[in-house]
Specification:
Glycerol-3-phosphate (1)-acyltransferase; Acyltransferase; DAGAT
Length: 312
Amino acid sequence: MPRPGGAGSAEFCCGIFVILILGNFWFVAVLYSLWFYFDWGTPCAGGRRSQWVRSWTIWNYFREYFPMKLIKTSDLNPNHNYLLGFHPHGVLVCGAFGNFCTGSDFKNLFPGITPYLHVSSIWFSFPFFREYILSAGIVSVSKESISYVLNNDGGGHASVIVVGGAGESLNARPGSLTLSILKRKGFIKMALKHGAHLVPVFSFGENELFKQVANPRGSRLRKIQEKLQKIIGFAVPLFHARGIFQYSFGFLPYRQPIHTVVGSPIPVKQNLNPTTEEIEQLHELYLQKLSKLFEDHKRNYGIPEHRSLIFE
């Protein structure tokens, strides 16, 4: 799942919390702990977005750094709810955060639609950090949370789910076009149960931002990473890129353009109890539409003609 702001930010926030507990402001930590307890369910109940946070000037610099652009290929009718499948995960899912949690590009391109970026529930366990990501319009990826968003009778809500999940980040490196999706069918079932139209989204350049230590499947490093993922709930890719004042090594992403292309919606009729066959059929259709979206736009963003997506 996406790591908005990075694990370092979450650890920093935890450090502040520990300092408050051990210092003269322990009562602040106690009060916050009470708030944390009573506010526990908010990430599964639509979150608590702040337009002020989403409009911070720093996000303009963040998007211009790469630069980052959101591309519309079709209108989205605000009378419907949508489930947007975002691909690929990349290392830090910069495109998903920048395009759906900051600025006004999405609002201008798709008026009447409110996007909710769903991430792993573990990120809402970090004190203070949870307030930051909630303010950005980020919510839990739990079934309860997705249902809350897509149950809006009036339409106009869009759940954005990074379908490949944390495991896909272990494949994220320049030139990679491998998507972990063949066994990912839960989002298809949720779309059917709520009658949410499916929209494939491909973010060109997402995998070009970082290099990663070689970790082919079956290698010792990959086995350790997969085991860690099961224990802590998120993957730990060993990545590097550039520094602040030099380009040879560091942890800032490379300045590579990100073009996040939003495809055309696939109409979905509500089916509260979809069969396995119905889920499989819609999943296959989704893969076809995602492949077509990629093929139609790859030439515009430097992908060689002979390269195609690899589903695993």
